[in-house]
Amino acid sequence: MRISVVLAALAVLLAAPAGRAETEADQLWQRVAAAYDALGTYSDSGEIVTEYGSGTAVQTRERHRFKTALKRPRQFYFEFDEDPAAGADRFVIWCEGAEFNTWWLTTKVHEVYPKGRGIDAFAVASLPTKGTAVLVPGLLFGSAGLQGPLHSLEDLRLDGTERIGGRDHVKLSGIVREKYGTSYVSSEYPATLWIDRDSLLIRRILQDTPPGGGINRSTTTFDPVADPVVDDAAFRFSPP
Length: 240
Hints:
The protein is of the alpha+beta class. The chain has helices spanning 3-11, 18-38, 118-125, 136-140, and strands at residues 41-53, 60-71, 75-81, 90-95, 100-104, 109-113, 153-164, 167-180, 184-196, 202-207, 215-226. It contains four helices and eleven strands.
């Protein structure tokens, strides 16, 4: 996970044969996954902008907010707040150290998921949170079997660097192929990730329009913090 390795990968991008460039991209992605797995604590705040439309015209654009907190081995909090113009829905996942819980404003239902079923909380949350509940959490809990779109990222390639917020980010592009079983592809679309060169944490994810359809894309932006001090109170939630 040393930064010099990432810099070396970028240096050979233009000169290396296609197969070598793909190998460098795969190795970078493996280091990113390892960086998230190694975090003792983590927090972020962010937004996802969703855009829909027919042809090339965007007809609907919504801006939603979310935040995440983690303290291993088993304290977690995730909150999604929908764009007020889209309905101002809210979805919360939390775990104070034992079972996972969810609460959804639309249904007013508080669900409890005992140990061994915590992954189900994220599966339920995927749709009402526009998929944000399984993006970075899918990396934070990757060793527990939580899957998300980033686990289906294939055909990786390095796309240079971009400076965001005064920091250098490596661009990593590929194709998300979500599959049933080992062969049937249920959805396929291009995606690009902006990865902080120093921390190896993801700053931005573009999930672009699938081929052959109208506009259906999302841009998720994170303000991630590696190994912050997180108070236990951050993992408590009382459903209203």
